[in-house]
Amino acid sequence: MSSVLIDGTTLTCDDVASVARRRKAARVGPGVKERIERSCRVVEAIVARNSVVYGITTGFGHLARVTIPQGELESLQRNLILSHAVGTGDPLPDEVVRAMLLLRANSLAKGLSGVRFEVVDALVKSLEADICPLVPEKGSLGASGDLAPLAHLALALLGEGNVRMGGVEMPAKEALGRAGIAPLVLRPKEGLALINGTQAMTAIGTLALHDAEALAATADAAACVSIEALRGIPAAFDERLHDEARPHPGQAACARTLRTLLEGSRLVSAPGEVRVQDAYSLRCVPQVHGATRDALAYVRRVLEIEINSASDNPLIFGDGSVISGGNFHGQPVALAMDFLCMAASDLGSISERRIERLLNPTLSELPAFLTRHGGVNSGFMIAHYTAAALVSENKVLSSPASVDSIPVSASQEDHVSMGTIAARKARQVVDNVARVLAVELMCACQAVDFRGPENLAPATRAIYDAVREAVPPLQEDRWLHPDLEAVTRLVAEGRIAQVVAAFSPPRTPAA
Question: Which of 54, 280, 298, 385 is catalytic?
Answer without folding.
Answer: 54
